[in-house]
Specification:
Distance between the termini: 44 Å
Strand order of the largest sheet: 11-12-16-15-13-14
CATH superfamily of the largest domain: Glucose-6-phosphate isomerase like protein, domain 1
Organism: Streptosporangium longisporum
Protein name: Glucose-6-phosphate isomerase
Number of helices: 21
Oligomer: single chain
CATH topology of the largest domain: Rossmann fold
InterPro entries: G6P_Isomerase, SIS_dom_sf
Radius of gyration: 23 Å
Structural class: alpha/beta
CATH architecture of the largest domain: 3-Layer(aba) Sandwich
EC number: 5.3.1.9
Number of strands: 16
CATH class of the largest domain: Alpha Beta
Strand content: 5-15%
Bound molecules: 6-O-phosphono-alpha-D-glucopyranose
Shape: globular
Pathway: Carbohydrate degradation; glycolysis; D-glyceraldehyde 3-phosphate and glycerone phosphate from D-glucose: step 2/4
Number of domains: 3
Length: 540
Amino acid sequence: MSVTFGEDDLTELAAETAGRLAAEGVPQALASGDSRLWGPEAQAEAAVRLGWLNLPHTSRELLPEIDALVRRARAEGLDHVVLAGMGGSSLAPEVITASDDVPLTVLDTTDPGQVRRALSDRLESTILVVASKSGGTVETDSHRRIYEKAFRDAGIDPASRIVVVTDPGSPLEQTAREAGYQVFLADPNVGGRYSALTAFGLVPSALAGADVERLLDDAAEVLPLLSRTEGNPGLDLGAALGAAAAAGRDKLVIEDGLSEINGLPDWIEQLVAESTGKSGKGILPVVGADPGDAEDELLAGIDTDGVVTVAGPLGAQFLVWEYATAVAGRVLGIDPFNQPNVSESKENTAALLDRAELPVGTPLLVDGPVEVYGELPGDGEAKDLSDVFTRLLEAIPSDGYLAVMAYLDREAAFDAPYAEGASFEEMTDVWSGADAATLRGMLAIRTDRPVTFGWGPRFLHSTGQYHKGGPQNGAFLQITGAVENDLEVPGKPYTLGRLQLAQALGDLGALAGRGRPVVRLHLTDRVAGVARLLAAAREV
Ligand SMILES: O=P(O)(O)OC[C@H]1O[C@H](O)[C@H](O)[C@@H](O)[C@@H]1O
């Protein structure tokens, strides 16, 4: 495992900062679980959040039970593994399984189309892992209810198909015990985004066929380095990230090139954004972007060259990035274990769901299949969608960013029809031409500021904290879409589609309430709408 720097200034800054942290006793304090490292206000939370450093050893206890579950699933022919979990409860398994090239269907969405897609895929051989630390996350609770009904309707006993991962004593533990589900209890002394090597990372990944023992072995190998005062990759990385951000280089562009580790930047995004984006400070991870030459960008490469290069196997990467984030938190003077602003959008959503009608407002403009809502930055009325994009791009502060947030089905682009006999390249062109995520790159070339992209509500558990708690220099573009075939959430008064829209509007309220420029584009026809978005971006 190694962390290296490709610029002399950064090498110097990192060494100086790591030296100072070592002199303050940070590595020893972390190794011994000292909760005072982030100041008195953070101490109570930190006291129950430092268990992740022991996981390479303690999580081994879970392996026999996980192995028994895997054997049962194989024996019963349950070959479609679905994971319902948000943020820290699904991002690690997504990377672990992608890196091991084994299939896992992740549900971290409230999009009815995307959930229907999972439901209609091999229900008869599906095993569902419901993963929620708190046990109260609305998206995950909805997925559990929907799958319970689907199993029952298909004459399948949910107890034979649902496995729960949660913290001891959570409401989900109680529900699961009453329903007779198999329950894995995770370490309550580890927070959601630090939980990659707990039952949250291991249970679904092993079920999908990943080698989780090797993951723990790789993490165990780097562990002794993390108590060192020199040659400590976690300390070096954290010192570099924290000190660079404190000096204004606070946009972290993360690339994984053609590395065998597949998708780690999305996991790092959540870890870094949610841990550091608060009190008006923080590090903004930028994923899926080409590095620009803006002075406030820092390029981190995972097993690929960057200004910071982090090389090593996945299990070790998890641990080193967690360590680095905790260290960066100390350098920046923030509590890396809380997420004070995530709840704000959740509360807005809950309040909206209590209303008879969602307050969607009146469109400012309708451009074909796209309705534009919100307050346009700049003067006068916009004439079309390209104009809306131009105005938003102009509204990005000189040290800021644009966040594109799409509350859509992230698999929908794969439905786009392509010609028979098309090459893989041609198919990829078709998919990217039907994918809302393509908008990120198209807008990015029209500004010298970073542009991020997130699928809603997934990003609410990640960069959503940074948007609201970090430096107030974002401009925001929301995309929502008409729902054709909604899904009831059994036992709840709302449908998934209504919940999804309420989440978008709830977050919009939180951003607008901070005076940030935020525009919502609503696609009245999703396929035509995405095509129109991309065409309009081309015209900017
Ligand atoms: O595991 P859960 O309790 O369902 O939480 C899922 C996610 O929810 C929130 O957004 C937290 O801020 C995340 O850190 C967490 O991973």
